[in-house]
Amino acid sequence: MIYREMEVKTDGYEGSGKLILYFLDNSVEMHPNRKRPVIVICPGGGYSMTSDREAEPLAMRFLAMGCHAAVLRYSVAPVRYPSALLQLAQSVLYLKEHAAEFHIDPDRIILQGSSAGAHLAASLGVFWNRPFLSKTLQTTPQKLRPAGMILNYPVITSGSLAHRGSFENLLGERENELLEEMSLEKQVSKDTPKTFLWHTASDTTVPVENSLLFFQALHSHGIPAELHIYPFGIHGLSLANEETSHEDGSAIQEECQSWIELAKEWIKHI
Length: 270
Description:
Blueprint: E1 2-8, E2 17-23, E3 36-42, H1 56-64, E4 68-73, H2 83-97, H3 99-102, E5 104-114, H4 116-127, H5 131-137, E6 148-152, H6 164-171, H7 175-178, E7 194-200, H8 209-220, E8 225-230, H9 259-267
Parallel strand pairs: 3-4, 3-5, 5-6, 6-7, 7-8
Antiparallel strand pairs: 1-2, 2-4
Helix pairs in contact: 2-4
């Protein structure tokens, strides 16, 4: 196992993130030249914090699948957009540039996000080829492109079905200026990577329409997308099992626990 923590900071922008690497090392006894996909995990928290429940527990499950995992503890309020997006883009760039060192398949870097973390992941998914990112990070757009996205109950739209607090924390005084641009279902293009989404129909915090709108936009652009809607379950289920439950035992939803195995099958086709 390779474990590292590193600061992620962009010159000229406030805030700094922390990228935590959980990488499976190669062995002369087991496929010594194997290259693995990396799942870059963006925990949720309404852009006000990054949830422990949606961080390391997910990393451990992805490791058990044979994937590398990285958790990005990105900047949150009062730090505003685009600091977190630049930190995620810089993380992808770092992983691609160090692919040989860490036995990474650079063409299989997958973003995973939950709730507002899914908004961050999807933001890079739709904005990776915008000139301001590659210019700021002094690289080429292709080095910032993720291969796919796994979005758990994502914050997507800034319209009438928005999780308003996420956008207030993300944008601050620039909310009126940037709100339309941050409605990600409107930013999908033919260059958006393939996506796996899941949500619960009974989510009262981030309505299921967020996933539906993003899926519809992906489908209309011919982007391969897989969407699973479970009938019951509160917002923020994470693994939906005892491992990620709250102290009072809530956030366990047995029928939703299948999402991680469904994602495992989806990853095989990236």
